[in-house]
Amino acid sequence: MSNIRRVAELAGVSVATVSRTLRSPNIVSPNTRAKVLEAVRDAGYKPNLMAVKFRAQRTHNLVVLVPTIANTFFARVISGIQAAAQERGYSVLLCNTLGDESAERAYARMVTSRQADGLIQLRAFNPFPADAFSAGTLPMVNVCEVLDDVACPTIKLDNRLAARTLTEHLIELGHRRIAMIKGPRRSPLTRDRLLGYQDALKSAGIELDDSLLSPGDFTPQAGFDAADALMQCRRPPTAIFCENDEMALGAVKLIKRLGLKVPEDVSIAGFDDIAFASYSDPPLTTIAQPAETFGRQAAITLIERLDGKQDVTHTILPYELVIRGSTSKVR
Amino acid sequence: MSNIRRVAELAGVSVATVSRTLRSPNIVSPNTRAKVLEAVRDAGYKPNLMAVKFRAQRTHNLVVLVPTIANTFFARVISGIQAAAQERGYSVLLCNTLGDESAERAYARMVTSRQADGLIQLRAFNPFPADAFSAGTLPMVNVCEVLDDVACPTIKLDNRLAARTLTEHLIELGHRRIAMIKGPRRSPLTRDRLLGYQDALKSAGIELDDSLLSPGDFTPQAGFDAADALMQCRRPPTAIFCENDEMALGAVKLIKRLGLKVPEDVSIAGFDDIAFASYSDPPLTTIAQPAETFGRQAAITLIERLDGKQDVTHTILPYELVIRGSTSKVR
DNA sequence: ACAACGCATGTAACCGGTTACATTTAGCGA
DNA sequence: TCGCTAAATGTAACCGGTTACATGCGTTGT
Prior knowledge:
434 Repressor (Amino-terminal Domain), 6-stranded parallel beta sheet
């Protein structure tokens, strides 16, 4: 592969002139420029970007840690990250971590070892060692599921309010026994949605009942199993609020398996508005999130931060209650 | 950030000794080794991998071109690529191309400009200029949807045989008017599945009817629209074979919207066995593909190729007919 | 006692660009 | 024509590792 020295030789100029011709053409004379460009063409020269990045000590790579790429909501977020990064000359190094913290730490080392400039984390976990960066320079942005106490910008939904809105929708339909299939126990996102759910019940004067809370892990199977457990308690719910659509689809399957109907016997609501939400039978009532915008905003914020912007912003994006056929008046 | 020279100074040795201590510890004396490792710790030294890669002229990055990451089948393939790459010390640069050829060419330039060592293409398109690599050294592997005429290893299903198997299943159930919702017109994958469908019909003595073929683009909406068109022809089909599960889910929605039942009125089959296939109502009959294995095998093959293996292998992976509730005896 | 060898370590070139600084050339006025 | 300035171009240091080769020293064999 030809390098800049070969091009310089072909064009009969110095390597500096070749470099300048390609980076700031206006400061070389038209004559020289033409010679150089011809030599570039003849040599089939492509600058070695590894060398460029090495010299600049800037990779223009962003690491993205995603719990699981197979989740269609995350897939949309990643599309947004990718699009915004690409527009700004950055590449995305995608890492499917399956929530494994040691894997996340390993990927974070790509930043400390200068394989990437910064990191976008879609999960509430800080993969960097506490002392890796001086205060306020952590090259990270946290999106979707967000840490409370880390000094980096975050982008999220007002999960508490969204969950409250959805729960209020169920209450307005006359439901009193409203179950919730939650996400992983220690997640702030799960905690916030639970709080919103409780807010709605409390202000409607409905007593909280822990037997209506069931844990899940965001997979359809978990929704199926959790719904099964809920329907076996003495006084089963008339509505189930699932913390994501995948689990809601699993819950719908279970209800039908029991010979019951959605929404006539049990109303079911999800969260995220994934593509399949409107193709399920019945189509899911859910909370739509601007997934691509999450991604775009995360990438933009991170790149600004890498460019030296110091302030730690916390962005809240809007949600929308999408009412479809999976929820209806009680009984 | 501290570099190797600073560590050498701290340890009172040369940079070569530091480098050796970290790369081949056994060739430095235990005394020196201890001194160096202490200095490494004290300095908080991490080798700058950009420099390492630049020096070695090897990035250990793989570019993956995926038409759309939001497709759950592709997401699983990518998981497989990622896992195998990571085990071998490679990172994955994921590029969501949306099938845009100029975007694919742009990403392929990451290889020619040495930002990545090789490329995995999930689509039937060669993004490299014809003259970019000398014969037999194209650093690319083509997986899932495969080019016929490019000198690189491929990994695919026997799509023709799989489509035939699925069609024969429908024929065995007594169907004679079997429609097909196809993928994009120019795709070899679509062509092969169509051939398999025709093979099955021919050997059963069923006449081919072009009005039973409808084009799609692998999205649920396309399945919905295509099924709509099919059901409006004079003699509508009793079974619809969709080239992927997303379109099958769209078709199921349309059939129900018409007030008909799946599978009693119309049997519907998909392809891929995505996670939601078993959560739809009724659960989809489909062809299961070993998606993660596709990815793993692609990554392994590419890395072998980068390590100098010359031969162009064409791997065929097994499929499985998964019979669920969306297909049944005709009438 | 000396040559020969091998182990541990040091020196410096190298990868391929970018760019500060030095040098040459061109243009223009006096 | 000379001198000055600005524009164009060249020279070489530099980024941070790796490694071929050189060096130095201790051990072994004769």
